[in-house]
Design a protein that fits this description.
Elements (H helix, E strand, L loop, with lengths): L26 H9 L4 E5 L11 E4 H17 L7 E5 L4 H12 L3 E5 L5 H11 L3 E5 L3 H7 L7 E5 L7 H15 L11 E3 H7 L14 E6 L9 E5 H16 L10 E3 L6 H14 L3 E3 L6 H11 L8 H9 L1 H4 L10 E4 L6 H11 L2 E7 L6 E4 L13 E2 L4 E5 L14 E6 L11 H7 E3 L5 E11 L5 E6 L4 E2 L5 E2 L1 H9 L4 E9 L7 E8 L7 H9 L10 E4 L13 H9 L6
Parallel strand pairs: 1-11, 3-4, 3-5, 5-6, 6-7, 10-11, 12-13, 24-25
Antiparallel strand pairs: 1-2, 8-9, 13-14, 14-15, 16-17, 17-19, 18-19, 19-20, 21-22, 23-24
Helix pairs in contact: 1-2, 1-9, 2-3, 2-7, 4-5, 8-9, 11-13
Length: 580
């Protein structure tokens, strides 16, 4: 790619272009295991407070052997190249084994949110045409409920405790049986097998499968924050490229010899964690600490304290909660091993960034991505820190255009809001079975290249830094013809020392002449009035941006990855009597 204005701001050691090997995604693991078989790959456990120091470590050699057996087991069950394999579980070693194993067998991975209820998992299984599913035992009842309505041929059931160390496994079993009064029984369920039984029955190695870089590796369903989830077809080339782009960005400026430890607190069923946690760790040979439930902050913080991670990819709500956790503020947990953090999935409020960096001493930068781009496209430089309030610069080999918001055809100049469009090796090949939506999102521009139209409104500075203004679909259509972007108001609210979280929508939902309504969660022990926060906004925002309504909440609806759901707030508001 020719030189772009943003390349001047890259950290030393981060080139404008990279070489991408033409191998499938699972080769990351094969290569690392052959080089460093005895290095730690996965650190897992320590969920119960009474045995908080208990954990299991799998080496890269052990992980690769398990992946080989899982791949061979799938083939033994009849998996053919291109068959979809749904993974319906939280972060655990089985998730990593099944991900690389399905790819090694020639399958296509379909990550499935473990928060899905029966109706949602049924839709995804049917939309993807999945023939296999690996499901956590606690979620198995959802699969049983919908299985007859799907194309599933084989169900593989796994238990969260399977890779716990001995004492923790024993105590977890006692606690679980006491709480539920029973264990999951699959004995009479046809074409259903336990994960460990499958491994025990499988050959040591799978039959080799020829996989092209252009073959689909993952059907990554969009988060559904703005509508019905769609399956983004990410090829092996897409996933390999984005893993290497992200790795180079996060570690290139520090030197290739750095031995980092990755904290995987984001759910691996989300594109962000798949790339910036799992594939980054495996391709680099780093250990990764798996956190099954990122909302269990005692476990999260104790794992940071014990295992000393250096890289913590996250979302603003995660960093915000760590900074404001009473145990962190009291010095109970040492979080200063963390050196490198990239925040995605939602805009990073300036106050959250400042506070986290002050508490941990880490470098926290904002990035940007979306499922359709594997997902990372932009980030601030780690070495310099970039610019606060910006998503930073396009990653190596990533080109960007900003076009007008009405027709999405005419490029606009610096400091002018427009629709963000992206071209690069990480951009999907299209949506699964959705030609119309694919044509709307992937468009050929005048330069002959295919560009992904993100639907996000952004602008670029004269010297190449990008800023997200907001989502086009969530823009507030204020009276007087003004367009109000929720993030402007949210950023102002986060600056208030009593505010923990904030989200803004336009009311009446879907109407003209909207006014802004803010939903606010206060910090622990704080009190505030609606008038106090409205006055705060008046002092820092233009009059047409000041919210008319403030609603205080104990918490805000979030995706599993921790992104605040404005859409759900809109739906809740729409069910009320219209605001006056």
């Amino acid at each position: 790619m020719d030189a772009r204005v943003w390349h001047q701001h890259y950290d030393p050691g981060v080139p404008a272009s990279l070489e991408y090997p033409a191998h499938p995604v699972d080769q990351f693991l094969q290569i690392t295991a052959s080089k460093t078989p005895n290095n730690s790959a996965i650190i897992y456990g320590g969920m119960a407070p009474v045995v908080g120091e208990q954990h299991t470590t799998l080496t890269y050699g052990q992980l690769n052997e398990l992946v080989n057996k899982f791949a061979a087991g799938l083939q033994q069950m009849g998996l053919q190249k291109g068959d979809r394999v749904a993974l319906y579980m939280p972060n655990c070693p089985q998730m990593v084994i099944a991900y690389y194993g399905a790819l090694r067998a020639g399958g296509v991975v379909v990550p499935s949110n473990p928060l899905y209820v029966a109706r949602e998992i049924e839709h995804q299984l049917n939309d993807s045409g999945a023939k296999f599913v690996v499901v956590l035992s606690l979620l198995y009842h959802h699969i049983k409920e919908v299985r007859a309505n799907t194309q599933l041929k084989q169900v593989i059931v796994t238990n969260i405790k399977e890779y716990f160390p001995g004492l923790l496994k024993f105590l977890f079993s006692i606690a679980k049986e006491k709480k539920t009064g029973h264990r999951v029984d699959i004995a009479n369920d046809a074409d259903t097998i336990w994960f460990q039984q499958m491994l025990a029955n499988a050959p040591a190695t799978p039959q080799p499968v020829e996989v092209s870089p252009q073959d689909t590796a993952v059907l990554m369903y969009t988060g559904g924050t703005t509508g019905t989830p769609k399956g983004a077809q990410l090829t092996h080339k897409n996933v390999v490229a984005n893993a290497l782009q992200s790795t180079t960005w996060l570690t290139g400026g520090r030197g290739a010899e750095t031995q980092d430890v990755v904290m995987t607190a984001l759910p691996l069923t989300h594109c962000y964690a798949m790339t910036v946690c799992m594939n980054l760790a495996v391709s680099s040979g780093f250990p990764q600490i798996l956190i099954p439930n990122p909302r269990d902050f005692d476990h999260l913080l104790s794992a940071i304290n014990k295992h000393r991670p250096t890289i913590l990819p996250g979302v603003p709500t995660l960093y915000n909660r760590i900074s404001n956790h009473p145990a962190v503020q009291a010095g109970k947990y040492d979080v200063k091993s963390i050196t490198t953090c990239i925040s995605g999935a939602a805009g990073l409020p300036v106050e959250v960034q400042h506070e986290f960096q002050q508490v941990t001493g880490a470098r926290l930068v904002e990035g940007y991505g979306l499922s359709e781009a594997s997902p990372v496209t932009h980030a601030n430089p780690i070495g310099s820190g970039g610019r606060i309030g910006y998503i930073g610069l396009p990653l190596p080999d990533t080109d960007v255009q900003i076009v007008d918001t009405e027709t999405e055809e005419t490029p606009v100049g610096p400091n002018t809001p427009g629709i963000l469009c992206i071209s690069g090796p990480q951009v999907m090949k299209g949506y699964w079975n959705m030609p119309t939506e694919t044509a709307n999102s992937l468009r050929v521009h005048a330069d002959g290249n295919v560009w992904l139209h993100t639907g996000d409104v952004a602008e670029i500075t004269e010297d190449g830094f990008f800023r997200i203004v907001d989502r086009k679909k969530e823009m507030i259509l204020a009276s007087g013809g003004f367009n109000v972007y929720p993030r402007d108001i949210e950023d102002r609210l986060y600056e208030h020392d009593k505010v923990l979280e904030a989200a803004v929508i336009g009311v009446p939902v879907g109407g003209a002449n909207q006014r802004a309504k803010a939903f606010v969660v206060l910090k622990n022990g704080e009190t505030a009035t609606e008038e106090e926060l409205i006055q705060w906004c008046k002092e820092g925002l233009a009059a047409y941006k000041v919210p008319k309504f403030i609603e205080f909440r104990d918490d805000l609806p979030k995706t599993m990855v921790g992104k605040i759901l404005r859409r759900e707030l809109m739906e809740q508001e729409d069910r009320k009597v219209p605001a006056r």
